[in-house]
Write a structure and sequence with these properties.
There is one protein chain. The strands form two sheets. The chain has a seven-stranded mixed beta sheet, sandwiched between helices. About 35% of the residues lie in helices and about 15% in strands. Helix 2 packs across helix 3 and helix 4 packs antiparallel against helix 7. The radius of gyration is 17 Å and the shape is globular. It is of the alpha/beta class and about 260 residues long.
Length: about 260
């Protein structure tokens, strides 16, 4: 399936394909694209299946999501691109590297969901099974378990256009909740072997949050070009914005960023 995409920056600059997390949308990349990356790259971000303006129909497996990404790259005429994936997007970059490594130049995975326990997958799936609508944006933020140390105003700005306000004042996220539940089920399955990472790759994570475990760090250490820890929580683009964006730019461009 061809995904709906949005672009920022110079259309003649090197393309940078950015993949959002579960429950997110292409607009999550707007701030960093307009503030920084659009000066250096043609930033391209899709709405994944079950999110935003892309199609919602199943199957909602990692394999299908990877196929959607390849179909979208083909439609854009992009043979090989640098990629940044956050959370679920990071897991999809790892899945893509395992199946289509020739489509990726450099890869950055930030707080990737490499694998979570079945218990955590069940907990989050149950939350999403009854979710999708909240009394307000603040209620949505308060329901998240990874937004304690972020710039709440900018976090909501990054979601502008991804929520609809209902007649009673409540807000609804523009996602297919069945897809979200299915994605959390997939997170309990092992990611591709670290040995499938065969292109220059940065793994950026928050040690304080613990999404990426010490065991996973040890497994990926021999395969990736760089591992970077940043302060804050899972939402590294809001809780550790400068550290995260600077590290990624330096890695992708191969230079020191002031």
């Amino acid at each position: 399936m061809k995904l709906v995409v949005q672009e920022w920056g110079n259309p003649d600059a090197p393309p940078l394909f950015c993949i959002h997390g579960v429950g997110g949308a292409r607009v999550n990349w707007r701030h960093v694209a307009e503030d920084r990356w659009g000066r250096r790259f043609r930033v391209i971000a899709p709405d994944l299946r079950g999110h935003g303006d892309s199609g919602y129909l199943p199957p909602w497996t990692h394999a299908t999501y990877v196929d959607d990404l390849v179909d979208t790259l083909d439609d854009l005429g992009l043979e090989k691109v640098d990629m940044v994936g956050h959370s679920f997007g990071g897991r999809l970059v790892l899945e893509l590297l395992a199946r289509f490594p020739d489509r990726v130049g450099k890869a950055v995975v930030t707080e990737p969901v490499i694998q979570i326990t079945p218990e955590l997958a069940m907990h989050r799936a149950e939350q999403e099974r009854v979710g999708g609508t909240w009394a307000s944006f603040d209620a949505f933020l308060d329901s998240r378990e990874n937004t304690g140390e972020i710039d709440r105003e900018r976090y909501l700005a990054d979601l502008d256009g991804h929520f609809e306000e209902l007649a009673d004042g409540s807000v609804r996220r523009r996602t297919c909740q069945s897809a979200i539940v299915s994605i959390f089920s997939e997170f309990a399955s092992p990611a591709p072997s670290p040995e499938t990472v065969t292109v220059p790759t940065m793994l950026l994570y928050s040690p304080a949050f613990g999404m990426v475990t010490p065991e996973q760090i040890a497994a990926y250490q021999p395969q990736v070009a760089e591992i970077v820890g940043v302060p804050g929580l899972h939402s590294v683009f809001t809780s550790a914005y400068q550290e995260t964006t600077t590290a990624i730019e330096r890695f992708l461009l191969g230079e020191v960023i002031a």
